[in-house]
Amino acid sequence: MPTTFRDLPPVVWTLFAGTIVNRLGYLVTPFLVFFLASRGVTGSDTSYVLGALGAGHLLGPAVGGVLADRIGRRPTMLIGLIGAAAAQGALFLAPGVWTMAAAALLISAAGSTVSPAAYALLADAVDSGRRRRAYALFGWGVNIGTAAAGVLGGYLAAHGYWLLFVVDAGSMLLYALVVTVRLKEPKRPSGSGQEKEELGYGVVLRDRLALLVLPLFGIQLFVYSLTEVALPLAIHDSGFSPAVYGAMAAVNAVLVVALQPFVTAWLAGLPQLAVQSAGSALIAAGVALTGLADGVVGYTVSVVVWSLGEVVVAGIAASVVANLAPAHARGRYQGAFGWTWGTARFAALTLGVTVYTSLGPAVLWWTALAAGTAAAAATLALRARIERRTVHTLAA
């Protein structure tokens, strides 16, 4: 383990370990289409359930951010984890399409309330100089667990879909146990009377710099999300089997898991906004290279390029958002960031697929390149303002 992570406090390591456990059980969502087909749900009915799942990712972060600031980080995480575990059982037992859609909405909404609270807890636990490393370590845990879950999920699905639900729900409950036993609620920072009375996102909406930064991160996240949506379409249209996409996913997982902690250590001394912009441009270039691929080698090159970009930007966006946030509103700022993430993924699923199928793949790849590099450049242009704001927040 690189020395860059060794000075992080126990709270960060507890969240890292708990996240690995939780993501090891990330099984139902990737195999949801196959489970629905086994229950006779196909065609447009499938889109209702998947749409509800996507809608929950828009609702959950917003609610989680408010709860994290209002009732605390730890209770919010427990509500999300236990609620999502219960929703897993509801989905498995659901008798029809609409009850399945309702359960899917609850799974994603409850599950996505956890991240704003966890991210706020990380910001509480470490100072500004170490936040990027803390968020990078947290993200590394997500990638380790997700990579292992991909292998585990295929094995369990072959032996019965009920195993996916048992392991997924069980991992959430185990993470909830870790939160209960190992984490303590930090002391809440004090604020003015107006700050204490305000429940919603007005504090974020009044922050002009945040309103510039979050959409730029959203564009970058939209481009990255195309790797989950448009890449499989491109591989399919090239006449390759799903196994090729599985191999590309494995290339990404191996690169990220193997390189991320070392690249984070190597880049730790550089200005993080410059690193973020360079990594985002690399992701945009890698996604655009998908349009030039005409074989497995071409697709592999594109995956390697955007995977390296993913490694470079690890932890920076969340750290920037945390540094912009007043101490009393860290949960809501992370909730806004989570909502931006959810919106970007939802846009990739809808707008991205529409552009690919209606206007053609080339339009999507060129748009991704232009939008990604423009957003990266605009983010870099805000560097001075963000650094001044960070210094001001630390002084306050």
Describe the structure.
The protein is mainly alpha-helical and 396 residues long. 82% of the residues lie in helices and 0% in strands. It is globular, with a radius of gyration of 20 Å. The model has no long low-confidence stretch (mean pLDDT 88).
Q: What's the count of strands?
A: 0
Our count of helices gives: 18
Poorly predicted runs? none
Helix/strand-derived category reads mainly alpha
Coarse morphology: globular
Reported for the largest beta sheet, the result is: none
Fraction of residues in H or I helices = over 70%
Radius of gyration: 20 Å
Termini separation (Å)?
34 Å
Mean pLDDT, to the nearest integer, reads: 88
Strand content: under 5%
Question: Order of helices and strands, N to C?
Answer: HHHHHHHHHHHHHHHHHH
Secondary structure blueprint with pairings:
Blueprint: H1 10-24, H2 32-38, H3 44-70, H4 73-93, H5 97-111, H6 114-125, H7 128-158, H8 161-182, H9 193-197, H10 202-205, H11 208-237, H12 242-267, H13 272-289, H14 296-313, H15 316-324, H16 330-359, H17 361-381, H18 383-395
Any descriptors?
globular, 18 helices, mainly alpha
Please outline what is shown here.
The chain has 396 residues and is mostly helical. It contains 18 helices and no strands.
